[in-house]
Amino acid sequence: LQFKIIEKAWNAVCPLVAKLKRFYEFSLRLENALRSLLEALTSPPYAPMQHLEREQALAKQFAEILHFTLSFDELKMTNPAIQNDFSYYRRTISRNRLNNQQLEAENEVNNEMANRMSLFYAEATPMLKTLSNATTKFVSENKTLPIEDTTDCLSTMACVCRVMLETPEYRCRFTNTDTMLFCMRVMVGVIILYDHVHPVGAFAKTSKIDMKGCIKVLKEQPSNSVEGLLNALRYTTRHLNDDSTSKQIRALLQ
């Protein structure tokens, strides 16, 4: 009977692990796509606003990536079963290795892949972490490109989203809540990337992002739709707890 239960659990967990692997591999593709987009949206001789006007389709793709990333991470944060299932899978393949048994599922996710996936899913917001690292790497590898070209691109996108959300004449054009949510996710996504890349971050007085305005726009929405986004600002940014962050902004995020 115990063997039957173990077999049933194993058969239930294998398709889930295969799905987790697909999302992990997708994060690597997103990382490459993001770097290509950053190259296109920051290359000389145009200013960030000119780039966003000239290459609207690319800016939209960048926004789509951020929207997916925050949606995925919100689901991941509310699903502890993901890590529990994956831990069970790893324990089982380790135990079988000790008994010199090779399971069919290992062809799909071997030990080395399982280790990489484990590091990925151990992050509170794995997709966002991937994009933050990719943006930081892009800036450090492109020494000839002024860092402002990247941060200005991000702050401009944050500004566009904030203005669309807080201006009644723009907001009334949003025919459904999905568009509002899309805008909010993109805004939060670019704020977080900006905060990871900019030397003093998004919360300092010198930041080109109106953080007070952005947080207020989020707080005007029903709390069930924005709590995940506010948590992303609280827990996945780098500079929120710096001395340079005003008390007002901290209070808004309490």
Automatic annotation (TrEMBL):
GO CC terms on record? membrane
- One annotated GO biological process: regulation of actin filament polymerization
Name a Pfam family for this protein: CYRIA-B_Rac1-bd
- CYRIA/CYRIB Rac1 binding domain sequence ranges: 7-250
Taxonomic superkingdom: Eukaryota
Q: Name one GO molecular function term.
A: small GTPase binding
- Bilayer topology term: Lipid-anchor
Keywords from UniProt, A to Z, are:
Lipoprotein, Membrane
Matching InterPro entries, A to Z? Answer: CYRI, CYRIA/CYRIB_Rac1-bd
| Location of this chain's protein in the cell | Membrane
| PANTHER family per record | GH09096P (PTHR12422)
Family to which this protein belongs: Belongs to the CYRI family.
Can you name this protein? Family with sequence similarity 49 member A, like
What organism does this protein naturally occur in? Cyprinus carpio
